[in-house]
User: What shape does this take?
Amino acid sequence: MMDPGNQVVLIDTHCHLNDASFTDVLDDVLDRARREGVVQFVVPAYDRPSLSRTLELARRFPGVVFPAFGIHPWYLEDGGLEGLEGYLSLQETVAVGEVGLDLAPGMAPVEAQEGAFVAQLDMAVERGLPVLVHCRKAHERMFNILGAYRGKVTVVLHSFSGSAEVMERFLDLGCYISFSGSVTRQGAKKYHRCARLVPAERFLLETDAPSIATQTTVASLVEPLHTREVAVKVAELRGVSLEEVCRLSTGNARRLFGLEGMEGEK
Ligand SMILES: [Zn+2]
Assistant: This one.
């Protein structure tokens, strides 16, 4: 049962409420999230059609849904970065994303991915926006690219999938580390270690809904409400209270994305 005196305040810093699976159930999804203390949502676009959907959501739920705009390495082919800059220049935009590198088999050629990624990093630098980064099987290349942007742009490694040693190197570049449902899984020793070692001022929480399973829930059924499950696990791993993890992660998210608190919030 849920604690009726629910005092925690959480932000899902990376969820795809712009995914078609949420379209008809959005009010319920937001209600269920709020009941678990998850009150604000950073929603990254990923392909060209999702740019306008993401903006519509942000305008429908002002102060609740915060948009990020970018083209994910999986979707570079349909039209490239055309039209993106207009979205990044909007006043409600809180980040560039979701962008990055994915060197798993079958992905776009690495040169094309790097070209689009660097172009979007430059757009972030120009506007002073943080960047939400997807990095799969590409940590070395990512590290080399971000090294050239040290001090110019703040990067969030979303659903971080590297080792603690790799995490240290990215922390040295000033990156934030974001934990998703993958940290909740019982056997995920590598992620558990990262959650224990990450500095208090450098971690965020997310679900990447509806893409990443948690210990209790299959990926397709994951919603922003599961940010709480991520928070509970991170608290357990760090040996601190849930309240402390919420206070830290929410403070980090608000500082990084420049979000205001909700009215009537403790
Ligand atoms: Zn994502």
Remarks:
- The pocket of zinc ion is lined by residues 14, 16, 44, 98, 208 (CB under 6 Å).
